[in-house]
Amino acid sequence: ILSDPTKPYINGKLIYSFLFALSFRPFHVEPRNIVGDDAQEQVSSEAAALSSRVHYYGRLTASSDRLLVPPDHVIPSPEDIYVYSPLGTAFKVQGGDSTAKNPSIVTIFAIWNTMMGTSILSMPWGIKQAGFTLGIIIIVLMGLLTLYCCYRVLKSTKSIPHVDTSDWEFPDVCKYYFGGFGKWSSLVFSLVSLIGAMVVYWVLMSNFLFNTGKFIYNYVHNVSTSDAFGTNGTDRVICPYPNLDPDGDSSTLQYYVKENSTGQVFDLWWSKTNTIPFYLIVLLLPLLNFRSASFFARFTFLGTLSVVYLIFLVTYKAIRLGFHLDFHWFDSSTFFVPEFRSLFPQLSGVLTLAFFIHNCIITLMKNNKHQENNVRDLSLAYLLVGLTYLYVGVLIFAAFPSPPLSKECIEPNFLDNFPSSDVLVFVARACLLFQMTSVYPLLGYLVRVQLMGQLFGDHYPGFLHVFILNILVVGAGVLMARFYPNIGSIIRYSGALCGLALVFVLPSLIHLTSLNRRGELRWPSAVFHGFLVLLGVANLFGQFFM
Fold it and tell me: What are the TM regions of this chain, as residue ranges (predicted)?
């Protein structure tokens, strides 16, 4: 028997296809044509009766009239559904759910792979800003807080009574509790996180393309680079801004001016801030205008490979350089920073985005094979992410050669502390460049789907609409790469802003509102979740005042 359970998988959601439903007719398969694990398997009398009833409804009206379609109680149960072959055989469907379910290990690494982004490059810088000891403490605490808030998002759909929330996402939950304001606020802050990521990508792609091109040029022309201040030896570490002010970024622009003032033709046309950000427009702007991003989705596995290679690179460099630590709890020295610094909100802002997966966790967990293990798998995924951030951040900070270099020299992108002539770092930059080039159109597609879908009800309302949106997004990336190429600051500002709503405020308010409606709200829960809201506000204001 074949009812029509056709549910095409589009944009992460299962929807019924009305057109497909019209094209199939129920039929009965003779027992001798059943193919399965048991050669003697027969069609049950109940299944044959169901087939007769479905045939009856099918003959009552034409296929174009949906008035007399078979009702739900007539449709066969999943164990009695077979897929018909034109060769005259039918294969039994194993399980009634048409979506592919993943085991726990796949779900855990899917969450890990989704969270592992550009923030991993800023972890050593974040630890430097907070201090070594305080930085480790903040990573652990922020991991626990964001895990709890993510847990509240995951459970938010379960707290809504008498409503089928099986296909709901977090914006739908926000709309249920707070109306249009909740829906649009979640949408706006979700767009902030996506556009912030695209801006960071543009800055990093400019950086990686510049260093990759410089490596190739120096190799072809046999040019030796020794002008940057740094250590000697095979595993050279450099300090691009030796006069760096820890409380500001004014020396950044001085370095770029100095770098491009050599007068050489190559340096004139191959500049990290003056030319490269504009070259990327030619490559990436046309890709953003594609109707579908399915082609680029094939390269998402490169993200996992890039992170694995980064972990190998960090391990290798740490072994070669050794550890250089000297504990000064509150006072700075020439080569070391205090263990506790007042700039710690900069790390918490970075971590808010680094641990951010709250806007898509419901979708990811829907595909978990064992739904009863969702909380455990989410916790293990966060543990894996936190350990990865700690591993990279702690090893790079500890292995940074101080003396002769000061820990203040650690860059927001730790790869900038290695010269462009370093072969292993060149491979890392080239891989990350290719990976980000393929992921950037996917991020642009998500921005377009969310914004255009809400404004016009269509993901692609027209070429002009899409082109104007892409110009604005690309323009933001070019401006930041040209005038403020500090990915650490970009990540912390966008992370603190979107995290205020999607990590701290909305999950806490939804939980408190749900408890209040059920009459189960108690003062300990109100105090704790109120503290989370205040923490999100303080995290945002700390980016501007500390």
Answer: 105-125, 131-151, 184-204, 276-292, 299-323, 343-365, 377-400, 423-443, 463-484, 490-514, 526-545
